[in-house]
Amino acid sequence: MAGGKETPRQRMIGILYLVLLGLIALNVPDSLLDAFRNITVSLETSSKNVTTGIDNTYKAFEATKLKEQKERAQPIYDKAKKASAIANDLYNYIESLKQKLTAAGGGFNPEINDVAQRDNLDVSAHLMIDGKNADVLREKIDETRKQLIETLPERDRAGVNFSLNAIDPPKRGDIKKTWQEANFGDGIPLGATLTTLAKLQADTKNAENEVVKKILGEVDQAVVNLDKFNAVAVAPSSYVIAGQPYTAEVFLTASDSKSNPDISVNGNKLATKDGKGTYTVSTGSEGTFTWVGKIHVRQNDGTFKDYTTAPQTYQVARPSAVVSPDKMNVLYIGVPNPLSVSAPGVSKDKIKVSISGGSISGSGGHYTANVSSIGTAKVTVSGDKGTVLGTSEFRVKRIPDPRAMFAGKSGGNTSAANLRAQDRLFAKLDNFEFDAKFNVTRFTMILIKPRQDAIILSTTGGELSGAMKSALAGITPGSTLVFKEVVAVGPDGTQRGLDGMVIQAN
Length: 506
Description:
flat; alpha+beta; 4 domains; six-stranded mixed sheet; Immunoglobulin-like
């Protein structure tokens, strides 16, 4: 089309070509818009869940600290409420912008479960850029972030890491965009703008949650950093006569593994490790024994306070068999479950161990149980003459489902460079005591680059296919990477459908 004098027909063809290019540029695929809507719904659900968590935090504080230490707790409670009000002002302003954009986009269409004109490329720029609403929003985000941080004590401010911010993106070549242009400028579909606003609302709620918990935590007087949690069952006595009820309290305990407070039992100081004292006493005679523990803890004002346990009772009786799981009180299908078996007064080489609903092997007090079906399994310990010394019943469960992991993430944000360096999708278990490995057998990957069609690829196995690697090689900041339809197989041989995940490249 360039060079020389064009005929009228050539000029018409050139004009039609430019029009076609414009139409192609305006064609936003439904799959991409559906992905934006799915992310929006997920973000809105997350905001609701965090709001519920904040409400529950307030209720727990009101029911305990505010009643027990009202004089000290009331100012702290009021400060937390002020932080919530600051965050809610921003949240509600963002909600008003969503409503304006939805109205300008033809309202909500229940048939597509989205705004009617979700592929409109003009509404966002008109209302947010031309109408200066993006400028106001950025100012409100910066001010909200500043005010929330200022509600915290000086010592806590440095550790704040809010995702709530409005920072200009990095320069790309010769193009430098503001935060407003990058998020709401020309060429951005209305559906994507609503997703951005939903993310800002989620960031606002997460910031509020972090600040409220830090503020309300100030009421705890003891200089203790609770970093270890355990489920504990406490019974007044471990010895019960047949026909009498057995009673125990089950609750969650927390301890400070980095401190070593003064702990004593019946006036005798105990050695401490990881914030815990261990009480050991000889049991040379039968009978019932009681002891009381005391913990001496320094307070914020430098004074000390004593915390005393309820009286603890234990029974010393004749020898009996004891079966203890080396990991936990559950047996899992597909992995070897180590058990320790002992019978005081009986030689270990005279002990015989059997299990229902599985198999058991080992000797010398150390055994390994393998189970195959969900339910219960009973371990029976017998002496050399076949006398049953004791039985223990265990719950049998299948191994929990793992989480899909990519680039060390199960969702959230990471750098585009980190994503480009990956070649495999993993399935990992969190906080599971056993060495149980899962292998990904198939999954689908969706790559959504800014203002481009979504790339949807599927493969078998955990390794990225060649097409996936090629697609990831071109990932840029602002892209969205989605993994779904993830299936993994664990040591028990069952296929597990795993939750999908969304990762944002930055």
